[in-house]
Amino acid sequence: IKNTDREIKGELLNPFSRNPTVFSSFSKISERPKKIIYGYLPYWSLEKTEYLQIDKLTDIAYFGLYLDEDGNFVTTTEGSDGTMIQEPGYDNWKYNENLKALIKNSKENDVRFALTIIAHIDDKNDKFLNCRECWDTLLKNIIVELNEKGIRDVNLNFEHAEGTDEGIDIKFSEFTKYLNDELDKIYGNSYLVVSAFGDSATQNRVSSDLENLSRASDGIFIMAYDYHRPASEEIGPVSPVEGPGIDVKETITEFLIKVPPNKVILGLPYYGYNWLVEDDSPYSKRVDGSDENGFSESQSYESVLSTIIKVNPVIKWNEEGKSPYFTYNSLETDQLRTVYYENPKSLKYKYDLIEDYKLGGVGIWALGYDGGYTELWDLLYEYFIK
Questions:
Q1: What is the pLDDT of residues 350-375, one digit of tens each?
Q2: How would you classify the pairing of strands 336-340 and 271-276?
Q3: Quick one: CA dihedral 176, 179, 185, 189, positive or negative?
Q4: CA dihedral sign of residues 77, 80, 85, 90
């Protein structure tokens, strides 16, 4: 624990790069990654693009444009004051200058740039997937957006909050095949990746028809995180290598029964969760939040390190899950809180799994979450480029 504590409080908290390529989007790549390194870039992280090390990536997927049930993109939404505003993902896609510059730099450095299609409302997802003509509408809309940006790659992020009805996963595979085939006809070699929940091999998910989905797509991004969430009854690692309960190693082995390893992208979290807890045990019961005491919440890697600097905790290690965590009393409310997160030490164990199982590559949720800290970029270089 003391060695880990020194590591986190010392060198790894330095936000200034020792690597001269921290602004590598402005220089040509000299070394190429040996595996896929696929990073989601959410619209709310676009102000962090200056920290992206383009030479450490093969793919960037902008997140994204929201889909309605008819195959059109959502362009407006209700603002906090009740008035209609332009939907932020769409607005940034159309007008954000950082995004335009990043797409340009990606092209210059042979990094694929994808548009993510987001579908997160259960009933609308079902209506769309059961509407064959709506697929044609979406294809036309996608082509307009890809051509406008001069790109050709797509990411499908279909997520149902709960399990799906029987047959929806088959519809999703059919839709994925249709879209991939049509994009290849137009662009020759469009790269289409679909995201999948970590339990897709065993539960009724939109992405559970894995045999057909793997044939229909060019890659499957396993969301190997959120094994514990802010609303979980007990806290624990966000992306545990091993149990209790389902874990990353089990997820990989279940996927590989149905999906070729070279098509698997193991998506990992650049964030953690900060829980209100009963005690400082590694699997403590969560305490319900309140306006007075605060709530359990997510924290980016950058935010976790800021908390560590502020509260100076003892960093502990969950040996089973291979994950760091710490407990402290909130400076604002004096309530006991525990944070689980990822750091270079914990990510190494999951990178070893990528090598051991000969997976296609690693995925990142999400780019920008590490801010100006460079140690996670250095680790990517050590494992997949050096």
A1: 999 999 999 999 999 999 999 999 99
A2: antiparallel
A3: negative
A4: negative
CB 1 within 8 A of CB 317: yes
Q: What Å distances lie between residue 6 and 303, 312, 335, 342, CA to CA?
A: 19, 11, 26, 16
| Phi, psi (rounded to 5 degrees) for 20 | -70, -5
Residue type (1 letter), 54: I
- DSSP-assigned beta bridge partners for residue 325: 316, 340
pLDDT value at residue 30:
62
First vs last Cα of the chain: how many Å apart?
29
pLDDT above 90: residue 1: no
Residue 243: the pLDDT is 87
Question: pTM for the complete prediction?
Answer: 0.92
pLDDT of 4 above 50: no
* Distance separating alpha carbons of residues 328 and 213, to the nearest angstrom: 44
Amino acid occupying residue 136: D
Q: Are strands 219-223 and 264-269 parallel, antiparallel or unpaired?
A: parallel
Residue 235 CA, distance from chain mean position = 20
162 secondary structure, DSSP code: S
- Which residues touch 37 (CB under 8 Å, ≥6 apart)? 56, 57, 58, 59, 361, 362, 364, 380, 384
Most distant CA atoms of the chain, gap in Å: 61
- With H, G, I as helix, E, B as strand and everything else as coil, classify residue 14: coil
**What are the beta bridge partners of residue 361?**
36, 265
Tens digits of residue pLDDT in 74-113: 999 998 899 999 999 999 999 999 999 999 999 999 999 9
Nearest CA to 335 out of 287, 297, 298 is that of 287
Gap between the Cα atoms of 127 and 134, Å rounded = 9
Report whether 297 contacts 339 (CB < 8 A): no
Distance CA 372, CA 49 (A): 10
DSSP state of 229: -
In angstroms, rounded to a whole number, what is the distance separating the alpha carbons of residues 67 and 86? 14
Token representation of residue 249: 């190693």
Judge whether residue 21 has pLDDT over 50: no
Rg (CA), the chain: 21
Phi, psi dihedrals of residue 161, rounded to the nearest 5°: -65, -40
